[in-house]
Amino acid sequence: MKKIINNPNNVVSEMLEGLAKANPAVKYSGAGVEVISRKEKKQNKVGVISGGGSGHEPAHAGYVGYGMLDAAVAGNVFASPSPDRILEGIKEADSGQGVLLVIKNYSGDIMNFQMASELAEMEGIKTASVVVKDDVAVPDSTYSTGRRGIAGTVFVHKIAGAAAEQGKTLEEVQAVAQKTIDNIRSMGMAMTPCILPAVGKAGFELAEDECEIGMGIHGEPGITRQKMVSAKELAERLLSHILEDYDYSGSEVAVMVNGLGGTPLMELYILFNEVEKILSEKGIKIYRTFVGNYMTSLEMAGCSVTLLKLDDELKGYLDYPSMAPAFRV
Amino acid sequence: MKKIINNPNNVVSEMLEGLAKANPAVKYSGAGVEVISRKEKKQNKVGVISGGGSGHEPAHAGYVGYGMLDAAVAGNVFASPSPDRILEGIKEADSGQGVLLVIKNYSGDIMNFQMASELAEMEGIKTASVVVKDDVAVPDSTYSTGRRGIAGTVFVHKIAGAAAEQGKTLEEVQAVAQKTIDNIRSMGMAMTPCILPAVGKAGFELAEDECEIGMGIHGEPGITRQKMVSAKELAERLLSHILEDYDYSGSEVAVMVNGLGGTPLMELYILFNEVEKILSEKGIKIYRTFVGNYMTSLEMAGCSVTLLKLDDELKGYLDYPSMAPAFRV
Amino acid sequence: MSFTLTSKDYVNYINIVKQRIYENGDYISGLDAATGDGDHWSNINMGFESLAAAGEELQNMPIDAAFKKIGMLMMSKIGGSSGILYGGAYMAASKVIAGKESIDSQDLCNAMEAMVNDMMQRGKAEPGMKTMIDSLYPAVMAYKQALSANISGRETMILVKKAAIDGAEATRNMEAVKGRASYQTNKGVGNLDPGAVTMSYQIECLCDYIIDNLIDK
Amino acid sequence: MSFTLTSKDYVNYINIVKQRIYENGDYISGLDAATGDGDHWSNINMGFESLAAAGEELQNMPIDAAFKKIGMLMMSKIGGSSGILYGGAYMAASKVIAGKESIDSQDLCNAMEAMVNDMMQRGKAEPGMKTMIDSLYPAVMAYKQALSANISGRETMILVKKAAIDGAEATRNMEAVKGRASYQTNKGVGNLDPGAVTMSYQIECLCDYIIDNLIDK
Ligand SMILES: Nc1ncnc2c1ncn2[C@@H]1O[C@H](COP(=O)(O)OP(=O)(O)O)[C@@H](O)[C@H]1O
Ligand SMILES: Nc1ncnc2c1ncn2[C@@H]1O[C@H](COP(=O)(O)OP(=O)(O)O)[C@@H](O)[C@H]1O
Ligand SMILES: [Mg+2]
Ligand SMILES: [Mg+2]
Ligand SMILES: [Mg+2]
Ligand SMILES: [Mg+2]
Prior knowledge:
The complex is a heterotetramer, with two copies of chain A and two copies of chain C.
Chain A: H1 11-22, E1 26-28, E2 35-38, E3 47-54, E4 71-77, H2 83-93, E5 99-104, H3 107-122, E6 127-132, H4 153-165, H5 170-182, E7 184-190, E8 210-213, E9 224-227, H6 231-245, E10 252-259, H7 265-281, E11 285-292, E12 302-310, H8 312-319
Helix pairs in contact in A: 2-3, 4-5, 6-7
Chain C: H1 7-23, H2 25-35, H3 40-53, H4 55-59, H5 63-78, H6 80-96, H7 105-122, H8 133-149, H9 153-170, H10 194-214
The complex binds adenosine-5'-diphosphate (2 copies) and magnesium ion (MG) (4 copies).
One magnesium ion binds next to loops of chain D.
């Protein structure tokens, strides 16, 4: 393992300490709490928070800022933050109008955020939750945990954050966040594994010419392990899974081509170039595009493609200014 | 080699095509010319262009936008663009007040930009040039090529771009760009090699526990190959080279902690956290911080640290709005 | 027949299981990497490190308070699925032994039953879903049966331990429904569930501790 | 004694050297990777591919125009240091043979001399700095000497070729002053300069082509 770190057990706190020093608009709660929140707290606004395991940077702390999140709560690498941390995030975000929790659909996150929201209610803070499940690599299901939440989560932060900034109520913000979730689908792939700092070596291997279609952002298994394909074929493959799952035909969409951390921007743009061609052939109109590292998996090489179907309401929120350093609009 | 590409020979044009589709504020000249320029051309403003080999994304095309570059010219991977391409970039950037060329100090870039500026003068376009040489890993010299231009170049784009946007003359923009260059020092390191798409395999190897201090952004040799060190020691090492070369004591600086493409943001923030501690100990005040992938080397894992000494003039330009997607201020 | 388990004993046991978990780092990380996200060992290892670090404080508390404190520490230090599941479980256990300085065998069985119930409820999971429950649940069942059958404390502990280990082993052929292994096309069949394995370590170490230290030979 | 080199010949030669360069991809990439940025082969290979692609057009031009066109193609298709150096060199060569349909041995020598002069001026480099000049310069010197010594065309070509190859080999012990190898602590000593090697391939192939096809045996 070659990483620019000190002690593997301190990566989260040292990272957030660095992040808060670099971004004067946010403050850091300190080690053990791991909350990044806005320094200037707007009063009487619905708070929007998110969080999850670390290792997905810039998610989630990079999305704290005007127009987006009020606070982000970090767990250890790939581990949901605990309820006490989340509670601190909720308190930071609360200014009297309640707090929306944007949760990614993993059983650890669900259980921890659930308990945190109970603790918050006990302290008199109203909360509401939405659960993002955009990864079409996994069949949807109510019996099992079901679909994972991946890069599409960033769109939910953006839109819920904008609605909250515009003075919507908790119920309204929750409703528009849910509507966003209902219209998002993502699909990813990976080319190399990632290494958890505390573990020190990769959990799996991919051969020199192999990739895994549908792999999750924690290296969870995908659909198929196969020979590496061209950017064109990859775009076709990822989009076909998305389009089989949800009918985007004739609609306007926001597109995100997301890098997993180890894949250079050059490749993401080449992939987007192919994605655009396919969408335009299919008559799906791109309203706005985001290409970059938005929801990563440490140093993993790979990518995901996300589509969000837009209407005028969602467009308005998507276009609303955001000062979050990792998502400036 | 596992890359999300189609044909290795087309990576530059497909990337820029994708980039222009993703960013409606710019236009792409087309394959073979490889110029990204602003769609809305402000009249009677000094043009600022830059460029160089590809593989350093988001440099340089990501820095085209209001407040920063007017055009960026891309060569093949790691190869300076040819004079005819640069000439196209100059023409795109020209609106009657002349064009500043921001060149990184490599003999290929110098020769190609030099000829392009002669061609431009022949067509009646006034040009001026500055050469960025911030990499303290290489001793400065007038006899040899001397210091390489690396991540500090982005600050030069930013400041020259802001000065031009504010209506300064070509001479004034050149002067402030030169002043910026005079006050910038950078130092990098690498942990893994990168793979040129057309070559298909790495040009060198670094052992599982090795890094190379001072390696250039094209994998050019550094100062020492050594065992990997902690983030703290790395910050000390990189800064000591910088501070030995230039006296930043008592001054206010902009800091950039730049990733080479394969290093996750988590590690960059941890490194910055250490950089900040050292600077604060030494009484060097940080005015503004930039942490991210600004000047990369394909998928190379590694980083660089850049310091820019600021005065009120430079602060003003650094803080001036920029709409370039890779450097929003 | 029975035994008396104090907070001091529990802290001793924690130090033993902490070592056991520490030594099996590669193995457990590998299990979670095969079907999940690879962090289970680092989560649970960090959890036991912080329990051990709080040993001084824990051993001077009544056992109900110690369980509550353990729950809070696990919930906040481990994170992920295991942190909240263990955290919730210990807090639930603390309630059923409320007011006790130390506990006997029946109390321990009650505590473990409260734990598994809390885990099932919180995780919306049942036995057979390839989780840590598949080690704890059969252990609790065996414990209850042994207590009602009135066999020796030593034999009881051996049965509980065996049920936990067999339960963990049985996860190999189960299809995952909850947790990350459920994302696999084959639902993780063929691989042990890491959470079940670390659960079985804990039960095994606890039973062995009781056998070795609290029961007359 | 002399020979006549036409555009058609030059295109034939280009196809030969293109193949030679293509076959040595790993070797040349390795040389540039060792001391530079690893792109020299891909640059020059792409350049010769585009020259070959323009073969039809080139072979129907007078040789001065063909050289100019070659220069423009190399400058725009290769990029990097080599592109502009070769581009400028061919354009300079085109000027000294202006007005010629085809060239003889003296013309070729003059053209090569113009090339090396342009390279030295543009690159601010001299022989001994571990660049492509270290292959071309001695070749030109040998050529001039051979022409004034009035030896056979065949022998002349052999001498020119040898000088180019020896010159490339001599870069091994030189310290780099220009180009990326100059960044090395040891200035690249011990490694051949990739640009000198590909230059020597070109001169070697050209000399061999002339010997094999244009000179009576
Ligand atoms: N819903 C659930 N109910 C019960 N146990 C679960 C549930 N989800 C996961 N587990 C258990 O947690 C273990 C994984 O723990 P850990 O790796 O620490 O958390 P995470 O899955 O969040 O990374 C699994 O092996 C399984 O035993
Ligand atoms: N200033 C210069 N003068 C003459 N030749 C040079 C100069 N700089 C580089 N070269 C030659 O160019 C070769 C490298 O070419 P190439 O790899 O294509 O360009 P780059 O160095 O820009 O990557 C070197 O091996 C050397 O022979
Ligand atoms: Mg986890
Ligand atoms: Mg190059
Ligand atoms: Mg796990
Ligand atoms: Mg090169």
